[in-house]
Amino acid sequence: MSGLGFVCILLAVSQxxxxxVEREDDKLxxxxxLRDSKLHFKQWQVKHGRFYxxxxxxxxxxxxFRTNIDLIQQLNEEYDGITEFEANKFADWSPEEFQAxxxxxxxxxxxxxxxxxxxxxxxxxxLPQTFDWRDKDMVTPVKDQGAAGTCWAFSTVANxxxxxxxxxxxxxxxxxxQVVDCDDSEDVPKSYGDCGVYGGWPYLAFGYLIRxxxxxxEISYPYCAxxxxxxxxxxxxxxWNSTICxxxxxxxxxxQSCPSKLNKSKFVKGLKLTDWKHVDTNETVIAQQLQKxxxxxxxxxxxxxxxxxxxVFNPVICSKTKLNHAVLLVGFGTAKGIFGDTPYxxxxxxxxxxxxxxxxxxxxxxxGTCGVNTQVTTAILA
Length: 382
Prior knowledge:
Layout: H1 3-13, H2 18-48, H3 55-78, E1 83-85, H4 95-101, E2 107-108, E3 131-132, H5 151-168, H6 176-182, E4 186-187, E5 192-193, H7 202-212, H8 242-245, H9 258-261, E6 273-278, H10 283-293, E7 296-300, E8 308-313, E9 322-323, E10 325-335, E11 342-348, E12 360-364, E13 377-381
Parallel strand pairs: 8-12
Antiparallel strand pairs: 1-8, 2-9, 3-10, 4-5, 6-13, 7-10, 10-11, 11-12
Helix pairs in contact: 5-6, 5-7
């Protein structure tokens, strides 16, 4: 006789059913799981300095956290040995909230005229096994865009920082906020535009810097659009195009905006853009140009990056044509694995140094993964 059957006979004498016992066991298991989840949530709050203004918000965030923990566990099971996911600083945001606060709305990759393409073809020289501009001190530290869709400005500025370092052998942190505040570039025929905290495109931002004639340093024009202790509410720099950008900010402060803050006398000396170029979508060409030109601005579909921790990112569901995040390509390599080798790109993100692999992530190379090869651009300095 099984143990459960023997227990049921004993319980029958006391007029207690096995079903009652099983229900009590389920309640106990659920109570223990809830207790562990609450403890995990409190530890996560302390680690990430996340506290809420009301009991109602705490309850809501905890529910989202538990749902995300289940999703993270599922992702780790699906991508075991390839990519790891974790309850990082975005663990109390739903995927929808993450996309609304951090990513841009998905748009097709812009098409450029032939004169904007670098005239390059696949060279006979084989690629090295690994390459990384960080090893050559051509990449500034990882920044954090906060809760704002300003990745396009970070990607633009990071590329210009690399170009400046290539020219002068000197790293300077440039002002992302100047680009966010002052750039109102539009590509009306294609319905693209630079829209402050609501998104934009590096190729348009390069155009702004060309017209503006320069850029300030991060020290003289610090970042504030993403919140934190130095939050600002910037007014649009000129007429707001609701068709391209959507509704404007509900509140803004002109004293915190471009006309009040921009100081051309503080532009970084010797830094002047004359043009920008687009690199071919062939990933061998991209790798070769990366070694020659320096770190490159790229865009991709980052929807599944929310809980990324480490490994080579290669999601099953990912668009190759609709992009919502701009970043900086700094290197490439090959990951050894039990299922074979996986070539990858090394990419600098703008979600802070505690996210991912010290602020970076790796994504599968030579497969057009998430459209990472479709919008590769760079500034050209004087």
